User: What shape does this take?
Amino acid sequence: MGFETTEDFSNWTILNNNGDARQWEFTGTNVNTGAQSLRIRNTNNVADDWLFSPCTYFEAGETYVVDFSYRARVAGFAENMAVRLTSATNATSTVSTINSYNNFTNTTYSNESLTFTVATSGTYYVAFHSFSAASRRGMHLDDIRIYNQKTFWIGNSAVWTDDANWTNGQP
Assistant: This one.
């Protein structure tokens, strides 16, 4: 998901858990690739904003990958973000934390590739949780991909041979 206007964002979920005036939003500034990225701008409140991927069936024993790029909006303002595996699109459904990024200040994109497994087969979400201190400036996300490390299956379509299901074309 590069957050481009040609991509379908309808199965992603944004949660403004702290109820302030700021939440994840599309922007044409500070993109990694393409014309858009997603950003969160902080206010005087502590950030508690979530971005949930579409629900995906993950099988126990398989290794999955989440690739993404992130950056701070403004130099000198430390930001916090965690990548979490959740069972629902709410702030209390965290199954595990895949990785946490505390006090990052990079204003050029950092490209990440994280692997994870699930203990129990089932439907999950990959969530990006912004939890920065109050009065920070926010962060950007771009180029999110979630797939099975062995088969490259990403499950975007019910049709097995649909190119949208594969990170490297049809099987």
About this structure: The mean pLDDT is 88. The two ends are 20 Å apart (CA to CA). Residues 153 and 166 are 5 Å apart (CA to CA). The first strand starts at residue 13 and ends at 16.
